[in-house]
Design brief:
32% of the residues lie in helices and 32% in strands. The protein has 77 residues and is of the alpha+beta class.
Length: 77
């Protein structure tokens, strides 16, 4: 499944990566998909918690070496 936008947060540390994620998602249309690459363990945990509570849909989650690849769909408000 292809993404409308890709956000590489590897090398970006907590909490700045969460700010970048929120900004990227805010700039997308409803129903759009965001592919995220993230490596920081604390940020990954927090990002998954945010996704769980936000109403966005986690379509895919896959470990790629020392980083995690997430595919998220922005849901309507």
């Amino acid at each position: 499944m292809g993404a409308d936008r890709t956000l590489d947060l590897c090398g970006v540390f907590h909490p700045y990566c969460l700010i970048l994620y929120k900004a990227a998602l805010a700039s997308m249309r409803q129903g759009g998909t965001l592919e995220i690459y993230i490596a920081d363990a604390d940020a990954t945990k927090d990002l998954l918690t945010i996704l769980d509570r936000s109403g966005e849909v986690l379509l895919e989650s896959e470990r790629c070496g020392d980083r995690l690849r997430l595919l998220v769909r922005k849901c309507p408000v």
